[in-house]
Design a protein that fits this description.
Elements: H1 6-29, H2 35-52, H3 54-57, H4 67-88, H5 94-101, H6 104-115, H7 122-140, H8 151-175, H9 181-196, H10 211-238, H11 241-245, H12 250-263, H13 269-286
Helix pairs in contact: 1-5, 1-10, 1-12, 2-4, 2-9, 2-10, 4-8, 4-9, 5-8, 5-12, 6-8, 7-13, 9-10
């Protein structure tokens, strides 16, 4: 029976707190920098860190044919995820983006069930369906504003980002049986930097750079690009993907908190109702199943190497 230490749970809370704050940080970064500058900075800062720590991970035990898994990993995240996620924040609010990100536990749990044979209870499925209804309703009632000029487009892009993150989580869970979380994080950052580097030549330099935008870039590069991904990949090395994904329920909570306190964003009354529905469904899905003795912590079958 697999038990997870409370320390990993605490780490995951911090990881998704940083991810929730990342929505707000992107809003600030996009005030001065283009989408390409932001996505490159997110992986570029992390790549410098991992190159400086090359001695820690360069002697990893590569197995023939695993290159394709690393290519898929980098394609999902950072490439597709960062482009879709960052682009979405140019069209929708941080609050709405955070609510869409709440679909991550559902999509990851379903993918883990299909590809990794991690079981999911009927209660969890029902709760996550409620969450999807809540997310869809919150997006439908979204209103255009200065911070969200095209919310439907932005929310759709965030949905694609969630699917990309799901593919990444499944891929990391699979290859983490052979490679350390540090090695995976390093290859992801350096591979993403090489993929985004040519695009910099097509991006115009910003005219004026605000201090808040620089702070946003540093937060995304250090807080998310280094700390959050190291913690996330470490957790995927130790726990089933579906179990780790349940902590994604915290993303909308942290995003709504930061957007409310820092950006002064507000939700409409219908949106608020659907957000409550989404969070209620996610919390219900995350609660232990009382019909089983093992509960939620053992509801997932660990991946066998």
């Amino acid at each position: 029976m697999q038990r997870s230490p409370s320390g990993i749970y605490a780490l995951l809370v911090l990881v998704f707190a940083f991810w929730g704050g990342g929505m707000v940080a992107m809003k600030f970064a996009l005030e001065s920098f283009s989408i390409i500058h932001v996505v490159f900075a997110r992986v570029g800062i992390a790549a410098v860190f991992y190159l400086c720590a090359l001695r820690v991970w360069r002697s990893f035990p590569y197995q023939k044919g695993d290159w394709k898994y690393f290519v898929i990993l980098v394609a999902f995240e950072p490439c597709l995820l960062f482009i879709c996620e960052t682009s979405s924040l140019a069209y929708t609010s941080a609050s709405q983006a955070g609510v869409i990100a709440a679909c991550f536990p559902l999509t990851t749990a379903l993918a883990a069930w299909i590809f990794l044979s991690e079981r999911m209870s009927g209660k969890a499925i029902a709760g996550m369906i409620l969450a999807v209804i809540g997310v869809a309703g919150a997006s439908y009632f979204a209103q255009a504003a200065d911070s969200a000029p095209a919310p439907l487009l932005g929310n759709s892009l965030m949905g694609l980002a969630v699917l990309s993150s799901t593919g990444y989580a499944i891929c990391v869970r699979f290859i983490s049986q052979r490679y350390s979380f540090f090695t995976i994080s390093a290859i992801q950052a350096i591979g993403g930097s090489l993929a985004f580097l040519p695009l910099l030549f097509f991006a115009d330099l910003p005219g004026q750079v605000q201090a808040e935008a620089i702070g946003g870039i540093l937060y995304l590069g250090v807080g998310v690009g280094i700390f959050a991904y190291l913690g996330f990949n470490y957790a995927l090395e130790k726990l089933p993907a579906g179990q780790v994904a349940l902590f994604g329920n915290l993303i909308p909570l942290f995003t709504l908190f930061f957007a409310f306190t820092i950006l002064k964003e507000r939700l409409t009354v219908p949106q608020t109702g659907f957000v409550v529905l989404a969070l209620a469904g996610l919390v219900w899905a995350a609660l232990p199943d009382t019909k089983t003795k093992e509960g939620a912590l053992t509801a997932h079958k660990p991946l066998e190497g």
